[in-house]
Amino acid sequence: MPPAPHKALKKARKGKTTVAHLLKGCEPGPMQSAGIMQIIPLLSDIEDHGIVSPVNARFRTEAYGTMIFENSSSCMMLIPCHTGYVVKQPAQDHAMGQAALVRSESVVSFDTAMCIQQTQPGFIAADNYAMMILPFVLREKALQLRKERSFSKLWNDILDFNRELGIDKSQAHLEYFFTAFERELNQFVAEFEWIPRQVGALILVNSVVAGIERSPSAEYFQSVWEPLIRECYGSLALKAARKREASIPSSRVSLNLDSIESLNDLRKALGEAEEREAEIARKTIRELLDEPFYYEEEERLEKYTLETVSNSQFIGQLVRDGDRVCYLSLITRDEWRKKKEWDMAEPFAI
Amino acid sequence: MFLSDKGKRLALISSGASEMIRDSLFGDEPSLTNISTEHGYMNGYYMPPGQCEALCALCRKEGFDVKMAPQEGLSLRWSGRSISCNSAPHPLQERVISHVVRQFLESATTSTGRASFYNTGEEQHKALEVIHRTLFYLDRGLYALLLTFGGITDHTRQMGVLRLLSFPRRGDETALLSGKHESELIRWIISTMPPQRTLKLFEMIARTRINNARTRRLMLNFLLHNPRIELWSTRYRSRMRTALIHALGRRSASIVADILSRKDEARSDRERKILKGMLGAFPGREKRDRVYECAAFILGVKKNLSLPLLLAYEGAKKELEAGASLSFETLEGLRSTYHRDRNSAEVLAMTKRQMTDGQRLNLQKKAADSGVELSLDFSRYTPVRLYIYAFEMGMTEEIRMTLHDKARDGAARIPLSFRKIGVIVDCSLSMKGHRTQAYRPIAQALAIRDLLSYMADDTVIVHSGGEIDDSLIQPSGHTSLASDLLDLVEQKVEIVFILSDGYENAPSGRLGEVMLALRRLGVTTPVYQLSPVHAAESGGVRPLIPELIPVMPVSEKESPALMLITAIMRENPFKALNAVISMLPLDEIFKMQPLFEEGVREYAASPA
Question: Is B516 on the interface with A (CB under 8 A)?
C-alpha cells in the first residue's frame, strides 16, 4: 500500500515524478568526504540562467514574521527553501518557512516568515546580508508550518534543537547555536569545495542520504553552497558527531595498507579506492526510492511553478518550468531516518 | 607541568587528562593547543599559582603523573645581537617557546586581517589575538623584536604596536629589550610601514583610547615631522585629522585650530608658546609655517592657505582642473562630490603623472576601460602582486619574463640548492581566496613554485586541480593530492613541497594514508607543506597531515629561510630564534634618531 503524503501537504495530489526524474540531466561527480559527512556533486550542463539567487539582493524586515526582498535584477529571483538571516544589528533574526519567487525588478514581502531570536526586538534595516539556511532538523517542521502566520511558530523547535546540542537556554535563539558551534561549523564548510559544472549535491551523513539539492545553474548553486553546507547539513553532521556515531562512514573507502608491498601496489590500491567510491556514489543514487511524490502546488509566477512534494523518504520543495525541474531541495523525513536507523542497527547478540 | 609567566603559570595537560580538566572547575578553553612534547601532544592552560597547586593535587589524586618546571620561570637575556637564557631551560620550557614562537611566525607571515576563503575577518582576528597575547606574556621584548622580521605582514605589525602601546611597561617588569629600545623599535615599525597602514594603526589607537605620553609623542612625531606632510594632508586628510585630534586631545586640538586660524603676525606670544608646546619645535621658520599650515588644514581651517597642494585641494572644489597635482583618489573623491557631471576617466588622465607604482598597477583595468594609457614597469612589483595582476588583467609575455627573472634572482640569494625537487601546487577552488583578497593564496603559491624551481637542477611540478586559462591556473574544483604525491615519489625526487591551504576533501585523509604507506615501504623522501593562508580554526597555518607532513607558512621572499627556521625551531628553539634575529635589521632600527622631538616631549610630559 502506498504511504500517505506528509501532513505538511494539506491538499496533496498524487504525482508521477520520481527522484530519477528530478535529477534528470545530472551525473554524479567525484565524491568528497570529510569526517562523517560526504557529498556527491551533481554535475550538469542543463542550466536556467533566468533565475538568480538572493545572495546579492537587499533584504529587510518591517514587522515580526514579515521578510521583504528587493530583486533589482532583470531575472526571476528564487529564494531557497528556508532562507534566513542572522544579523549583528540589534534586530530580530528571521527565516522563511518555504522557498519563494520574486519577479524581476520588484519588492515582495512574505508575512508567513518566522522569528528565530525570541527575545530580541527590532527590525532589520535594508541591506545585503549573508544568508543562511535553517539547520536540517528544523526544516521539516518549518515546512509543515509554512502557511501559518505566526512569528513564534518555530520557537519550541528551536529550544529543543538547542537543548539536544547541549545549549541549555530558555530563549529560542538560533544564534546561540551558531555562536556555540562557530568553530565546528567553519570546519565543516572548510572541508568541502564546489566544483565546476556543479548544480547540486547529494549529502550523506554517516553513509545515509540526508538531502538532495539542485539549483537552476552552477552559478546559483555556488552562491548557496556555503549556507547549505555550513548551517543546514553541517548542523546535522555536528549532531550526529556529538552522538559519537562512527567517525569514518562505511561509504568512505580506506586504503588497505597491509596489502601494499610496492609503489605499484599503492598506485593500484589508490585506483581501486577511487573506483569503489565512484561505484558507491552511483549505487547511492540508484538506491534512492523510485517512489512517486505527492505534490501540492504553492505558487505560479510567470512560467515557474513552486511545489511542495513528499514521498516516504523525502519532503521538500521544487520549482518547475513546465516539466523541467529548475530547483529542488529535498530532505529525508524524520520518520524515514528513524526507520533506517532501526534497519541498520546490529542484531542482538551476546 | 608548570612554567611561570608574569604571575600566572602555564599548565601543560596531556589529552588523557583533558577530560578531567573539562569536568573540573578548571574547565576553561586552553590558551595553547597541540604542543608537541616527548609525552605526546598537550594543551596549555594559564592559571594563577593557587589554582595550579589545586590542579596538581587533583592530577596526583587521579593517578596522573605530575612534573614541575622551575617555578621562577624563564629569564631571557639579550646581548644586543643574540638571545640566551640565564639558566639552562627546562625541556618543557623549550617546547613552549618553540610552540609559541612558531605559531606566531606562522600567523604573522600569512595573516592580513581579512577574511579567507574559509574564515571571516572576525574569526581571523580572534585567533590572532590569542597568538599575540601568548607571545607577549612570554616576553614583550621578544615579541617586539619578532615584529621586525622581514616577512611579517603589516596587519601583524599594527596589532603588535597597538599591544605594545596599550600595555605600558611596569617598573619592575623584566623583558628582553629595555624601554628605550622598545620605543626605538616601535618608531622604526611605524616609519617603515606604508603611511596609510600607519594612519590606520593610529585610528585603532584612537578607537581603543590609548593616550599615554609615549603614544601621543610617537603619533605627533610621525604626523608633523614628516617631509610628506603636505601630500598626506590632502590624501589622508580624514585619518590624519582623527590621529591629530587624538594625539592632542579634543580640547587642545580645538585651541590649536583656533590659534592657527590667525596669521602668525596676529598671534600673541602666549599663543606661539602654546603652539610650540603642543606641536613641537621646528628648525627654521619656513618648515614651522609649513607644518602649522598643514596642521590647520587637517583640523579644518581653510583660511590663509599658501601651500600648492592645499590650494589645489580647495581650488578643485570649484574647478576640477585646479586639482591636477593631487593624487587620483583625492581628486576622484572631490569629483564625485563637487563635479558629478565630469567622469572618472578625466580624473585618471589628469593625475596619471603622480601615481605611485601601486596605484598604477591597481588602476590598470580602470585605465584600460577609460582609454587612458598608464605605463607600468613590471620589475618594480613583487611576484605575488604581478600574479594577482595577471589573474585580473591577463598574462603577457612581459609579465612572464619579469616573473622568471625575479624568481631566478630570488633563488640566487638563498643559500640552498637541490638536485631534483617535486612541487605540488594545490589549485582547488579554496586557493582562490576570499573576495577581499582574491587570488592572493594561489598567487603566493605560484610565486613560491617559481622560486623553488630555480633552486634545483631539475624540478617536477604538478598542478592539482584548477583550469588552465591564458597560461595561468585558475583555481577550481576539489582537493585531491594523494596520487600527485605518488607521481613525484615514483619520479625519485629528492624533496617534495606541497603548496596548499591544507584542506583536502577527495577524500579527506587520503594523502595521510598514502604518506603512511610510503613510509612503511621505506620511502624517506622529505615532504613539506607550505601554506599561504592563515586558518583561524587551527590557530596558524592548517596542516594537511598534522603528524606526518611539517607545515610552514609562505611569505614570499622570506619563505625558504623561514621554512628552515621553523623546522629548526621544533628541535632547538634558541638556535632558531637567533637565526631569526640575525636576519633582523637591528642596525637600522636602533640607529634611528628621534626627529626634532624637543617640543613634543615637553608637551607629552605635561599634557594640558
Answer: yes
